[in-house]
């Protein structure tokens, strides 16, 4: 019963949030129409700019509503199925972008990875690969504050090691948009596809909806229904490794990254093995 209440509560919350977002979209659309009418009589340039801004806001609210509604539908369908894995909110984000996989990466003020929400295991491995190698669209978007995208041979030429790793996961295209609010860069939305890139305007609209409505809006949820991973085990394992090896935190984290790359897995998996299975990252046996 506890699990039923949990999915039911989240589905109802998603429906309520969707309804609120649709109401905000309607208000913004009405404001846009009002400014268009006023522009026929005075200050046309300024009023049309305001109308365009309201239309963009309405589109953002609608994108948020559609993602919340899709999540509620997925939860309801899952509750009547035999699937073991509960649907993730990021799967609705990925569907809205029209791609195969994706991840939300939150960053600290130093642009270091703070928390991650992934659509599936493949997305988790893809974004972790970029973090381990220090390459990729996510890293460049975080640093530049601009959208970044690459596909096919361009992906391999731009980031050779990262591009090969992405290809090994069956992905051929990657795009990332920075997530900002009030001039502050909060993170990056990075998406992956087996074939083609999403439309840039749509990806930016989804990124804006994710930031300003879903994470930080009046009924925002920065933890995405409990799906955001703070990587506590990675931090704990880094401390354990530093103590075992007699090295600094930076070097200990580098050892964890190197082992994850060598094993073809994630830093979270290596951290779990260090904490729960006594894995040593030197020549000592596991």
Keywords:
single chain, 286 residues, alpha+beta, five-stranded antiparallel beta sheet
What does this molecule look like?
The chain has 286 residues and is an alpha+beta fold. It has 11 helices and 5 strands; from the N terminus they run H-H-H-E-E-H-H-E-H-H-E-E-H-H-H-H. A 5-stranded antiparallel sheet has the order 2-1-5-4-3, with helices on both faces. It is globular, with a radius of gyration of 21 Å. The two termini are 40 Å apart.
Binned, the helix content reads 55-70%
Tally of separate helices? 11
Overall geometry comes to globular
What is the terminal-to-terminal distance? 40 Å
Derived structural class: alpha+beta
- Average the pLDDT over all residues and give the rounded result: 89
Low-confidence runs: 1-5
Q: Give the strand order of the largest sheet, numbering strands 1, 2, ... along the chain.
A: 2-1-5-4-3
How does the major sheet shape up? 5 strands, antiparallel
Order of helices and strands: HHHEEHHEHHEEHHHH
How much strand?
A: 5-15%
Rg, nearest Å: 21 Å
**DSSP strand tally:** 5
């Amino acid at each position: 019963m506890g699990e039923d209440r949990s999915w039911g509560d989240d589905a109802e919350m998603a429906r309520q949030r969707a309804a609120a977002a649709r109401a905000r979209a309607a208000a913004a659309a009405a404001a846009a129409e009002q400014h268009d009418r006023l522009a026929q009589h005075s200050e046309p340039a300024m009023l049309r700019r305001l109308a365009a801004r309201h239309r963009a806001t309405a589109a953002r609210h609608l994108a948020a509503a559609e993602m919340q509604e899709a999540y509620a539908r997925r939860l309801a369908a899952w509750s009547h199925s035999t699937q073991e894995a509960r649907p993730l909110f990021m799967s609705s984000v990925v569907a809205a972008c029209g791609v195969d996989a994706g991840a939300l990466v939150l960053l600290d003020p130093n642009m270091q990875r703070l928390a991650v929400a992934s659509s599936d295991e493949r997305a988790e491995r893809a974004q972790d690969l970029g973090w381990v190698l220090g390459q990729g669209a996510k890293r460049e978007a975080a640093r530049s504050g601009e959208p970044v995208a690459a596909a096919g041979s361009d992906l391999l030429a731009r980031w050779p090691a990262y591009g090969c790793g992405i290809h090994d996961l069956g992905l051929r295209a990657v795009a990332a948009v920075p997530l900002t609010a009030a001039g502050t860069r909060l993170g990056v939305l990075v998406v992956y596809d087996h074939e083609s890139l999403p439309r840039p305007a749509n990806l930016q609209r989804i990124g804006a909806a994710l930031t300003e409505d879903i994470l930080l809006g009046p009924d925002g949820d920065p933890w995405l229904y409990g799906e955001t991973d703070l990587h506590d085990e990675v931090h704990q394992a880094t401390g354990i490794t530093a103590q075992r090896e007699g090295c600094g935190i930076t070097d200990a984290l580098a050892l964890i990254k190197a082992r994850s790359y060598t094993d073809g897995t994630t830093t979270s998996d290596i951290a779990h093995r260090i904490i729960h299975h006594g894995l040593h990252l030197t020549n000592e046996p596991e």
